[in-house]
Amino acid sequence: MSELARWLAAAVVLAAVPFFLGEYHNDVYRKMLLWVALALGYNFLFGISGQVAFSHFAFYGIGAYSIVILLFQVGLPLPVAILAGVALCALLALAVAIPSTRLEGFYLALATLAFAQLFVVVLNEGGRVTGGTGGLMDYRLPEIFGVRITGPWYTTVIVAVLLGTYAILARLDRSWFGRACRAIRDNPEAAAAMGVNVARTKVIAFTVTSVLAGLAGMAYAFVDNTVNPPIFGLENAFLLLFMVIVGGSGRPAGAVIGAVLLYLLPFVLSPLIGHHHALVFGLLLVGAMLVQPRGLIGVYDALRRRAA
Amino acid sequence: MQDFLELAVSASASGCVYGLVALAYLLMIRPTAIINFAVGEWAMVGAFGGFLLLTRAEWPYPVGMAAVLLAMLAVGWATERIAVRPLVERGAPLLAPILALLGMLVVFRESISLAFGPDPHPVPYPFGFGRLELGPLAGSYQSFFIIATTLVVFAGVWLFFERTVAGKAFEAVAINRRAAALMGINLARVTALSFAGGGAAAGLAGLLVSPNISAHYLMGVPLAIQGFTALVIGGVGRVEGALLGGLVLAFAEQLTVRYAPVPAGYAQGVPLVLLMLFLLVRPTGLLRAREARA
Amino acid sequence: MRSAGALLEVRGLAKRFGGLAAVSDLDLDVHEGEILGLIGPNGAGKTTTFNLVAGVYPASAGVIRFAGEPLLGLPPHAIAARGVMRTFQHNRPFAGMSVTDNVLVGAHTRFRSGLWSVLAGRARARDEEARQRRRAAELVEFVGLGESAAADVATLSFGQGRLLEIARALAGEPRLMLFDEPAAGLTPAETARLATIIRGIAERGIAVLLIEHDMRFLLPLAHRVAVLNFGLKIADGKPDEIRTHPQVIQAYLGDPGALADAAH
């Protein structure tokens, strides 16, 4: 089967699923797809490019809030609002990434942590623009050519965002750019000696993944038709990191597995430990670091090697 | 003026709390280069320890405080044993224990939340609610208690590093791990002690701040950020830097709230903006590490 | 001393670290297809010179011209883009990638397709990727790592890691190769193989600057040798001249082992 045919088949299958699910399960499904999209982007930033950052989820929020604000407060038409939102994410990402190239190792993590927290503070204090602590609600996706896309049809949009994210990142990963990112991750001095412009590559990786997170956020805005500050807090930023590590950082398959597993796990665990599923995540992370830092993918690889 | 002096006392007290958290980070970063984000949760555990022993069990304050500190030494030591030592011994990259500690952060917080529930829990004031006037300075008993306790702790830590052999060993590890090991310094013990000390410093911070804000399972992360900002401002090189950084941060926060024409909620943004600014402009902090003496 | 038309021209190069002059007033030339060996006792300034050419740190004084263009002040990645590639004395592979991918990173500056071509999946980008992969496979064969092409870098022996360093640097299509003590840590068999490889590289017209301690390896291999001592060049000429040069012998009197090697 040609590559294009495989993509279409995947798209059709993923998009068809919600038509067989009830409303509740459709909601779970869509959010899971969005988490997978986020995890893929974060896997590229953290696992492939080696940048420990906590801003990824904040860009998800920036995308979500900006599409709502641009559509319903500034009054832009949908395509323009999307482009403007993308531009905003790109500008903010550059503003964070360019100065950060001078920061070593974990200091980037802290600067992005501060950025993410600052985003939440701005949301809470943003008055009418951001809706303050209550957030924004009572809006709907505008009609596109007279058609209102809702329900399982909207999930198709999310599938498109997911596959688009996957395709972009896969192309980048398999190219000289992806190799340059990994080289920087593994040995920045040697990478520079081989001709890699370390600062520029890091900035590009950060910006691309942040914009992709922002696009996912725009799709998210119309899932619950509400956006509020607690959603975009540090909790979820940590969760994203946990997903990528537990699944297997550096491998897209790991990101998918980690996202699906850690997203669905609370549903399974809630009869046992209620809201405290984060406890299991924390334990999984510690366990992963101690036992198999390569995550579940690493476990799978090791088992396969032993069987061979 | 009176206004400002009162603010000064209150800000100094907050600054001392931040300084203690910064000290916790510093104690662990210097010999190991590991940034332990769980210090915020350690502070929370200290606060809850205060709740258990002082509010619920109604122990006398000095006894309860000492017990909490001892317990926090153990918590710090245990954390290192579980999440750090196995990784360091395996030669794992620096990121690994940092991430493991991030996992521990969540474990601590959720465990406390599971055990005590989401509501705030009161912790008593050792000297009650009263106010004290020392000349022109006026503030709550608690503020003065915090300042006094912190000064004692910092003086003790400073003396430890400057005047004791053990402290010098610490410094040696901070400067060059391999050389220190070759000189016979037990790296594992230094690391274990540094984490124990970090646990105690963070726990003390939590205990001191909790009468004002109550013990609450979410109090960890904001303190962790404020403490880290204080560390970055003051500089990792010197113990005094942690306290200086804490004071600078606290004054910046309170002056912003009091005098700046922005809504009060933005005060939370002050440590964040300062952190980003310092990381970008002056990541080594205000105080430089002392030059090696010939 | 030929100086006309040298690919790499170093004039009056100096580097001071605090009060210590690591390199002073150094002149060097390396021509295409020529192997210039740079030797000297420990602390002579060989590594400093190497690092100055490779752009690791700035020079205190002097000029370095590569194909007529100044090289000093350029960051390492720009120097690589100009066609100057280097190996590292302590192997620095990219541990998370396969052998072939490591070599492909070396070819980074040779990729012409931009990010947009890559994202759009243009045929040009795909063809270039395929072409570079083939080249990388050839280079892996050339250095003798053929069987390990798909292997995880972690499984390579020290000697194999050294070969990877070389293949990776060659992937950058360099006109000048900088070798930093390439024979260090290699077995005699690996050392012989290394000499063959370096000779092969020079035969392809690539200029080679070779820092080395092991005189038994260097003197038969190099076309010309420059000798440093305390940051100053004390001799420059053919290997046979250097072998019997009185000042060189005196400099190495503190290193009789090296001298004994050279006598063979």
Q: Topology of this structure?
A:
The complex is a heterotrimer of chains A (308), B (294) and C (264).
Chain A: H1 3-16, H2 23-48, H3 56-72, H4 78-100, H5 106-125, H6 127-130, E1 136-137, H7 151-173, H8 176-186, H9 188-193, H10 198-221, E2 226-227, H11 234-247, H12 252-273, H13 277-291, H14 295-307
Antiparallel strand pairs in A: 1-2
Helix pairs in contact in A: 1-7, 2-7, 2-10, 2-11, 2-12, 3-4, 3-5, 3-10, 4-10, 7-10, 8-10, 11-12, 11-13
Chain B: H1 2-32, H2 39-56, H3 61-90, H4 95-116, E1 131-134, E2 137-140, H5 141-163, H6 165-175, H7 177-182, H8 187-213, H9 220-234, H10 239-259, H11 269-281
Antiparallel strand pairs in B: 1-2
Chain C: E1 8-17, E2 20-30, E3 35-39, H1 46-54, E4 61-66, E5 69-70, H2 76-82, E6 84-86, H3 99-106, H4 115-120, H5 123-143, H6 158-170, E7 176-180, H7 188-203, E8 207-211, H8 215-218, E9 224-229, E10 232-237, H9 239-244, H10 246-251, H11 256-263
Parallel strand pairs in C: 3-8, 3-9, 6-7, 7-8
Antiparallel strand pairs in C: 1-2, 1-4, 4-5, 9-10
Helix pairs in contact in C: 3-5, 3-6, 5-6
Q: How many β strands of chain A by DSSP?
A: 2
In N-to-C order, the SSE pattern of chain A is HHHHHHEHHHHEHHHH
Greatest interface: A-B, 37 and 42 residues
Q: Which spans of chain C of ≥5 residues are poorly predicted at pLDDT below 50?
A: none
Distance between the termini of chain C: 26 Å
Mean pLDDT of chain C: 90
The order of strands across the largest sheet of chain C is 6-7-8-3-9-10
Percentage of residues in strands of chain C = 15-25%
Uncertain stretches of chain A: none
Task: Tell me the helix content of chain C.
Answer: 25-40%
Domain module count of chain A? 2
Give the count of helical stretches of chain C: 11
- List the strand order in the largest sheet of chain A: 1-2
Q: What is the strand tally of chain C?
A: 10
Q: Can you name the CATH architecture of chain C?
A: 3-Layer(aba) Sandwich
Order of helices and strands of chain C: EEEHEEHEHHHHEHEHEEHHH
- How many domain modules of chain C? 1
Structural class of chain C: alpha/beta
- Helix % of chain A is over 70%
The oligomeric state of the chains shown is heterotrimer
The averaged pLDDT of chain A comes out at 91
